Amino acid sequence: YVPPQVRKAQETLDDKKREELGRLKKMVNGLINRLSEPNLSSISGQMEELYMANSRKDMNETLTDILMNACVTAVAMPARLMMEHVLLVSILHHNVGIEVGAHFLEAVVKKFDELCKSDAEGKECENLLALIAHLYNFHVVHSLLIFDILKKLVSTFTEKEIELILFLLKNVGFSLRKDDALALKELITEAQRKANTAEKKLQDQTRVRFMLETMLALRNNDMRKIPGYDPEPVEKLRKLQRTLVHNSGSGKETQLRVSLESLLSADQVGRWWIVGSSWSGAPMINDTNSKPQQKLHIGKVSSKIMELARKQRMNTDIRRSIFCVLMTSEDFLDAFEKLLK
């Protein structure tokens, strides 16, 4: 048996396979180039047929490559075009399977992380962030990832990051407020604290002030205070999405509840969010750095109770301690307190 990683390294694509992939790429490219709101229905249908006819892996890789080339450019992409591309991914994610969205999301997040660390001059970061924001808008990914990205940006807090925070809040701020108001409130508090400490270092004070005003407008649910905020296009496309997704119930259930850290370390620890893509050889399950198990203190328990526990086959420390607590407690309150300890 040759594991897939090794197999991949060994096999040089033979001519036939290369030709097939080239043909597939041309077909997908043709469909993506014609993509617009009126013909989204027919194009998503043709894409689904391609998924049925070809291997999922080839399709996922081809689609991700083409979309990344189309959307991640050095100039800012028109918002409408970006939404239509992401809506296509979202429809395939709901109709074909969650690995479509998962594969695309992972590629986008890794590229975004890479570009954030480098000092790229263009608008690639904004474009990638727009992709992530719309993946959230169209229920491919959960708000958990968006909050992770915002926390990361707030912790760095340079001028570039402030622009990205503003961009993200303008796109998905009110949805975040609806999903998890408490997390948004914590984020705003943290940003205010950062702004107070970083005031000396940043040259452009007005942007920081504008960002804080935007955050306060979000907290107070005041849409008028955010210039250029228009929820109309997203709402319109969401309606279209509901008509194109086959099983209309699957809005929230197929959202990927995955954190930024999990996505970035997917190669090391497996992709638990896709069925069958995690593995037990993951470093986090390795014995090398596992902490010794805590010893449970039951307190003084008579040997009679311990003997009973043994007879009832309470074979681990924790089972024995729970058994002893239940057997020796005076009433339910006492049992509850002891169990908490």
TrEMBL record:
Q: Which source organism does the UniProt entry give?
A: Calonectris borealis (Cory's shearwater)
Subunit description: May interact with EIF4A1, EIF4A2 and EIF4A3. Interacts with PPP1CA and PPP1CC.
What GO molecular-function term can you cite, just one?
Answer: RNA binding
Localization terms from the record: Nucleus, Nucleolus
- Indicate the family of this protein: Belongs to the CWC22 family.
What are the GO cellular component annotations? nucleolus
What's a BP term from Gene Ontology annotated to this protein?
ribosomal small subunit biogenesis
Q: Report the protein name in the record.
A: Nucleolar MIF4G domain-containing protein 1
List, alphabetically, the Pfam families matched.
Answer: MIF4G
The family database entries (PANTHER family) matched by this protein are listed as: CELL CYCLE CONTROL PROTEIN CWF22-RELATED, NUCLEOLAR MIF4G DOMAIN-CONTAINING PROTEIN 1
